[in-house]
Amino acid sequence: MPAALDRSYDGIIIGAGHHGMVLGSYLAKAGLDILLVDRRLKYGGGLCTEEVTEPGFYHNLHSINHFHISDTPWFQDLGLSQRVSYITPPYEFGQAHLDGTALVLGRDLDETCANIARLSQRDADTFRRWNRLAEKATAQILIPERFAEPLPQAEREALLERTEVGREFLAVARCQPLDVVQELFEDEHVRLLFLFKVSLFGTWLTDTLSKTSPMGSVIRAFDLQTGYQLCRGGSFNLARGLMETFIGAGGRFEPQVQTERILLESGRATGIVLADGRTVRARQFVASTLDIHQTFENLVGREQLPAAFLRKIDEFQYTAWSLYGLHLALHESPRFAAASFDPNIDRSLKWSIGAESMADLFEAHEDVKAGRVPSIIQFGSGPLSLLDPTQAPPGKHTTYAWHVLPLYPHGGQDKPGFNAAFAEKIIDKWAKYCPNLTRRNIIGQYVYPAERYAREMINMRGGDIFMGAFNAEQVMYNHFGYRSPISNLYISGSPGHPGGAISGGAGYITAGIIAKELGIKPWWTPWDARAALERMPQHEAAA
Ligand SMILES: Cc1cc2nc3c(=O)[nH]c(=O)nc-3n(C[C@H](O)[C@H](O)[C@H](O)COP(=O)(O)OP(=O)(O)OC[C@H]3O[C@@H](n4cnc5c(N)ncnc54)[C@H](O)[C@@H]3O)c2cc1C
Q1: Closest C-alpha to ligand 1, atom 7
Q2: Sign of the C-alpha dihedral computed for residues 492, 206, 211 and 192 taken in this order
Q3: Residue 52 domain-assigned?
Q4: Cα 275 to Cα 277: distance, rounded to the nearest angstrom
Q5: What is the CA(60)–ligand 1 centre distance, in A?
Q6: Tally of domains within the chain
Q7: Which of helix, strand or coil describes residue 447?
Q8: Per the domain annotation, does 514 fall within a domain?
Q9: Are residues 352 and 212 in the same domain?
Q10: 177-186, 236-245, 332-341 — which is least confidently predicted?
Q11: Which residues lie with the beta carbon below 6 Å from any ligand 1 atom?
Q12: Are 72 and 95 contained in the same domain?
């Protein structure tokens, strides 16, 4: 049998992150002969778990919090529950304050409203009222649209206008998320945690300053049926499950493949040309899961593309911040002083630590926007091994801090000692909230700054973890698209709806598109946004 790179395939997929593996698994199961290549030795991309501090402490260096994964169509179609297991913590978001109070948002409505009411009864009533709309909008609009090719704006809006839930959804989506949060809630701490929840992955404010929110992120934040989950044993286990599925379906994976360019013949993508001069041909398609610029500038070449498409590439925006990661191996999981106010703060999946007011948040936002390191330390975290004891040795613990930083904090120059000193600042701040976060509690620590992940994952250009900004100009009907001016060349990763992060959406959606365009009858039932919006009950009250 010829070696993997010495024969041709029906389809070639570039990039073995989760999008590439989801796409490959569907098409291999459909009977296509698929080659999946990655430039790295490792597969999984942002699904990466490593023992970087001490043996037995499994740290998730990239993605940790996976949104509603076990209910996605691809997790179910591919039977991934046979290979991978997800934990759904009952308490999702937690924020402790220096005044000794805490706010925890869980999955139970009454309990969550009672927690909010301890800070503001009015805000608790608001939450309960909006939760009713959110549950309907999430089930009828947000989830079905997440896994289907977006409809054109006019058609989508006409369908949404037909129902009360749709009209309410549109009204909120047309507002700036930050305005909505400030108008709805009166308590500063409630506003803060809610913004943490609204902003994608609780990371940053920028996205909530978009003029509108076509994806409906504000509404989603009131919903308690969906939420973040943890992959048992560490995020890499999802990659392992996907790779086993792909290989089991007859797919071929080849690591350490340096793709020099995508082969074009008569305007069609017909394979890849490797750095060593070899060519691997694809009879039916090539799909790239890389960032827009690698795919089209490096692998295709600007000279092959029409002017309008080049403009689209040039106008494409990347996320304006990066993440500095600090991973800790601990004797004890962090315990908050505010646990005496609400003990569930200690076991909430996602902590927002360090910002006490909206002013703190805005200050950090301004700092990052101006390319400065924020002067007020504020970060996201969570008690990973407390929720999943398999991520640390018995009785020991792991946790992490993600701090938002500018893409180039020192104008792109190395600043010796910065990373270690910044870790100390984070630990000092943390100890103000968690008195047991002492140096004696720390067994080992590992800093994973943006410059490192951007070097390893060259698709995360300039430290952009999503490979494209989630702003109103680039989401839903404005997404980059799955097709290209080159026939048979598909974009099957983060630049397409529903965008970056571990959603699998773009891999799943393009599997349906490619199958259809190749005339293959899919073995699964691809989701359809038009059918979902047409199904919305016409006479149902919004709340
Ligand atoms: C610090 C950090 C924290 C994060 N936290 C979360 C989180 O909690 N939740 C969440 O949902 N998301 C999170 N993300 C984002 C998430 O990891 C990514 O958005 C996601 O991995 C994108 O998936 P993908 O398949 O599109 O690309 P990737 O996972 O990036 O995979 C792309 C693959 O392509 C390969 N590749 C790149 N260039 C080439 C080339 N030229 N030729 C061949 N192969 C190539 C790469 O090696 C990689 O394997 C985080 C990311 C980082 C860095």
Answers
A1: 63
A2: positive
A3: no
A4: 5
A5: 12
A6: 2
A7: strand
A8: yes
A9: yes
A10: 177-186
A11: 14-20, 37-40, 45-46, 62-66, 201, 259, 289-290, 294, 323, 325, 453, 457-460, 465-466, 493-494, 500-502
A12: no
Question: Are 222 and 266 members of one domain?
Answer: no
- What letter represents residue 301's amino acid? G
CA 383 – ligand 1 centroid, Å: 23
189-213 average pLDDT score: 73
Residue ranges making up the domain that contains 208: 86-135+154-230+319-456
In a domain, 58, yes or no: no
Please give the helix or strand (H or E) that residue 11 lies within, else none. strand 9-14
Question: Tens digit of pLDDT for each residue in 36-71?
Answer: 999 999 999 999 999 999 999 999 999 999 999 999
Q: How far apart are CA 523 and CA 193, in angstroms?
A: 42
Is the pLDDT higher at 321 or at 115?
115
The residue whose two tokens read 């090719």 is 149
User: Is there a contact between 499 and 491 (Cβ–Cβ < 8 Å)?
Assistant: no
Q: What is the DSSP string of 472-517?
A: TTTSGGGS--SB-SSBTEEE-STTSTT-SSTT-HHHHHHHHHHHHH
Do 213 and 257 share a domain, yes or no? no
Identify each DSSP E strand in 294-417 by its residue range: 322-330, 350-353, 379-382, 397-405
Q: Ligand 1: which of 464, 465, 492 to mutate, most ligand atoms within 8 Å of CB?
A: 465
Of 517, 528, 16, the C-alpha closest to 253 is 16
Within-domain flag for 257:
yes
Q: Is the preceding omega at residue 485 within 30 degrees of 0, hence cis?
A: no
Distance (angstroms) between ligand 1 centre and the Cα of 193 equals: 26
| Closest to 395 in 3D by CA, of 446, 330, 439, 350 | 330
The tokens describing 357, both together, are: 């007011």
Cα(13) to ligand 1 centroid in Å equals: 15
Residue at which a domain ends, from 433, 456, 479 = 456
CATH number (domain holding residue 25): 3.50.50.60
Sign of CA dihedral 65, 526, 268, 476: negative
502 CA closest ligand 1 atom index: 11
Taking residues 262-276, what's their average pLDDT?
Answer: 96
109 with 196, same domain? yes
Q: Determine how many CB atoms are found less than 10 A away from the CB of residue 11.
A: 24
What pTM does this model have? 0.96
Instruction: Give the CATH number for residue 99.
Output: 3.90.660
For the record, the structure tokens of 234 come out as: 């560490």
Q: How far apart (Å, rounded) are the C-alpha atoms in residues 140 and 534? A: 10
| Closest residue CA from atom 2 of ligand 1 | 62
Q: Please report which confidence band the pLDDT of residue 320 belongs to, taking 50, 70 and 90 as the band edges.
A: confident
> 369 and 486 share a domain?
no
Query: Are residues 311 and 377 both part of a single domain?
Result: no
How far is ligand 1, taken at its centre, from the CA of residue 513, in Å? 22
The residues, any chain, with a CB within 8 Å of residue 166's CB and separated by 6 or more, are 141, 159, 160, 533, 536
